[in-house]
Amino acid sequence: SYVLTQPSSVSVAPGKPARITCGGNRIGSKSVHWYQQKAGQAPVLVISYDSDRPSGIPERFSGSNSGNTATLTISRVEVEDEADYYCQVWDGSSDHVVFGGGTKLTVL
Amino acid sequence: QLQLVESGGGSVKPGESLTLSCEASGFSFVDSYMSWIRQAPGKGLEWVSYISNTDNVIYYAESVKGRFTISRDNAKRSLFLQMNSLRAEDSAIYFCAKDHSPVAFWGQGTLVTVSS
């Protein structure tokens, strides 16, 4: 089965950029989606199809995907961005949905 | 606005059954794939199952295959998850979700606890 690997945690100071990676075999050939989950809340889609921002998502969120790594970038982190972030793909070989293990973003 | 409201969670013993429900509003349910995704306490997201809009496409995670059954009633705008032979490792918040990849919108979830 397809596996997505994320760092367990990332720390960043307010106003600095944050980059959260998602590794997978030839992930660049798949569409990657990113979700933000704040404590006690349901996840929210923040990036779809590698780099598209859904309506209402701030411009500071962006995504890229190439080779074996997809990346979620928050250009200038704000305190409110502190949350868990999950990457997700659809594995066409199994028709299964796959989530990464999640990354806890801490704003120092 | 989009709304997904789950119900049916609770506390059961290993081996018992439970059926979750999800009522949808604010979007075209009949045109949407729907999913169930779970999250064990303090853990990450785990996809459980999805069903196509006309229920002719259904897939399950290996961890629940043969024990869980997803279904829908388009006339009632409702999604269901029948869970049989429950195990302690099935304990989680179960989220109902619109679409499967990407998941466009999530409900707030319903808690299932399996314990003797």
Kindly describe this structure:
The complex is a heterodimer of chains A (108) and B (116). By secondary structure, chain A is mostly beta strands. Chain A has no helices and nine strands. In chain A, strands 1, 3, 4, 7, 8 and 9 form a six-stranded mixed β-sheet that branches. Chain A has a three-stranded antiparallel β-sheet with strand order 2-6-5, with no helix packed on it. In chain A, strand 7 and strand 8 form a beta hairpin. Chain A is globular. Chain B is mainly β and 116 residues long. In chain B, the strands form two sheets. In chain B, strands 2, 4, 5, 6, 9, 10 and 11 form a seven-stranded mixed β-sheet that branches. In chain B, strands 1-3-8-7 form a four-stranded antiparallel β-sheet, with no helix packed on it. In chain B, strand 5 and strand 6 form a beta hairpin. In chain B, 41% of the residues are buried. Chains A and B meet through strand 3, strand 7 and strand 8 of A and strand 5 and strand 10 of B.
Q: Can you give me a brief rundown of this structure?
A:
With about 110 residues, chain A is an all-beta fold. In chain A, about 0% of the residues lie in helices and about 45% in strands. Chain A is built from no helices and nine strands.
What are the key terms here?
heterodimer, A: 108 residues, mainly beta, six-stranded mixed sheet, three-stranded antiparallel sheet, B: 116 residues, seven-stranded mixed sheet, four-stranded antiparallel sheet
Please write out the topology.
The complex is a heterodimer of chains A (108) and B (116).
Chain A: E1 9-12, E2 18-23, E3 33-37, E4 44-47, E5 61-66, E6 69-74, E7 83-91, E8 96-99, E9 103-107
Parallel strand pairs in A: 1-9
Antiparallel strand pairs in A: 2-6, 3-4, 3-7, 5-6, 7-8, 7-9
Chain B: E1 3-7, E2 10-12, E3 18-25, E4 34-39, E5 45-51, E6 58-60, E7 68-73, E8 78-83, E9 92-98, E10 105-106, E11 110-114
Parallel strand pairs in B: 2-11
Antiparallel strand pairs in B: 1-3, 3-8, 4-5, 4-9, 5-6, 7-8, 9-10, 9-11
